[in-house]
Hints:
Elements (H helix, E strand, L loop, with lengths): L1 H32 L13 E5 L10 E6 L5 E6 L2 E6 L5 E6 L4 E6 L5 E6 L4 E5 L4 E6 L8 E7 L4 E6 L4 E5 L4 E6 L5 E8 L2 E7 L5 E7 L2 E8 L11 E7 L2 E6 L2 E6 L7 E4 L6 E5 L4 E5 L3 E6 L4 E7 L4 E6 L5 E6 L4 E5 L5 E3 L8 E6 L4 E6 L5 E5 L4 E6 L7 E3 L2 H4 L11 E3 L2 H7 L5 E3 L5 E6 L4 E6 L7 E4 L8 E6 L5 E6 L3 E6 L5 E6 L9 E6 L5 E6 L2 E6 L4 E7 L3 E8 L5 E10 L2 E10 L5 E6 L7 E6 L5 E6 L4 E5 L7 H7 L1
Amino acid sequence: MRTLLAIVILFVVCVQIQLFGLCNAVRAQEIKDVKKDAYGDPLPPGAIARLGTLRLNHGMPVNKVAFSQDETLLFSAAGDGVRVWNVRTGQEVNHFPTRTSVDTIAVSPDGSFLAVGFQTTDVCLYEIRSGKIIKTLRAKELYWGLKDLAFIRDGSQVMAVDKSARAAIWDWQNETLIWQKTDKIPVQHARISADPVGFYFSDGLKPTFYECRVSGNTYDLRTLYTPETKDAGPHPFSDFLFRKETLYFAEFSGVAAVKCGPADVDCSKLRYSFGGSILTENRNLFACGERDGFIYLFQPDRLKELKRLRHWGRVTALSFSASNKYLASATWGGTICLWNLEKDGADLAFHGYDDGVSDLAFVDNRTILSRKAKERTFYVDDFLTGKGIRQLDPAQFAGATLVRDADTFLTPQKGLEQNIIDISQETSRRIGNLDRFIFHPKGDGFASWEGWPKRVSFWENTGDKPALTLTVSPIRSTLLTAAAFSPDGTLLVVGSSSGFLKCFDWKSRKEVGHCQLPTDRNQNKIRRILLAKDNKSAVIQCKDGVWVWDIVKNEKVAELLDSQCATGCFALSPALDQFAIAWSHMGGDTFTNYLALWEMKSFAKIGEFRAHRDRTRTTRLAFSPDARRLASGASDNTVLIWDLKSLASTAPLAKERK
Length: 658
């Protein structure tokens, strides 16, 4: 009996070992089969290429950056948590996801721990190697919104200050609150000093700077400086630093230095461009980041400018490494740049798209045309190789805008210039916001609309005056928010912020139908409209989801997405038989992005992909001319190319969302 039992156990063990080896082989094959982009980073399932990069790209506005002490890692804090980057390669090493936005971070002196401060009053300590939270520090007296965070007294304690100038110090190893300042003062900016222990802050209501020194369980608060300029507004300062009895602050007119010691006040200024600035310092070297993307390095003694660096986009965070070898800069668009201060230029700059993607279209089935959100230059890229082919000079197309198949319902034409319609600057000024227009399907003009007064104008490709104007009245006391032509160009449908639609015969300008979507207190804003070939079925993106509506019978045909799904954008295939929707599923603390494909005739879902990074927004979609591929541009500054043939069953993704 024992022999038989031993044989059975041995057999079971052998089977488990074989299954374990088989599973490992399958995982290894899956890893090997994962497609990678031009930089060697993995692509999501279904994607075949990526324009732009995820390296040194947080994907959303960065609040703060910080180096590890050995200068091998860089940490960036934003709305989706903290990302960890390899300084040498720019590749993402780890991600510490958080439920709320991270306002500030600090690295321990030994480089083992990371303190993370949230918009709430919590401070979490992460073990950098494992990425796990080991401590959570709380102080009841702290107000919402931490301003600064630092390790003090050789890293044994953590200090935090909030936006009301309340502060707390913890012995973080024992999770013990050992000191706190409870009186409240409105604060615009605050900085913690590790030696001597204390912090400095500026009054948020009037331009006054304070110093708070901490000794044991007491603190000494004194006024550092109050400017006497007559033209100072309620918030004239964007950032400041205090070092060796000298106050450095950035204001709208530049950077100023003021001696706050026993000597007479001496103020000197170094002027920069107008706009908000951020300051950072390290070992007698200061950096100032501007809204226009410029970074200035200067000596603090005489405010002498040493070097000027160019980073695309509004600079939101700066940080020096311990040895002053590197300077890290981050922007509102989420891109991060590493500057080697011993060299000229950036040491690492994986820019790709610096500020999201505002336009997207296929030139042919291999090359794609795109434009960054705040630039007027169009880029043509070979997405299979990741290489740029050429650019369209913004001076050549000063008033140009991209004719997207998602907006025009046109089959993309051959050639690059035929996808561009030149709109003169005078016309642009006359029609106002260029985002509020659509092209006629026959390509002989475009329509623009005004929210108030409720008016739609039709413009020919040449000329500075509209060919005709259609007054849409009344649609209750709301604004026009969306408009669309039917595929044959005979109908124009306009939607309002209250969920009310009106349909007009474009030639006779007469109303031929209307409908009212279900609303909650007359607030169901219509954001996008697509019309089917039958001239009666409309796919409507609104505040409460995506619906298919019969605009003739005024009844709902289908509900594609509910109010838990935040929809980004639409695209219609060249044959007008399919349409794609980029959307995000909001469940609990998750905000996951998807791309879904529907059949236009039956409105049946064909399938869906997991799309760009979570908590980002897909801004543009475009079908290739052969309808075999789909391009998606997002606020994470990347474009993904999807193989629509690989759309699998939606069951796994539907199960994932539950």
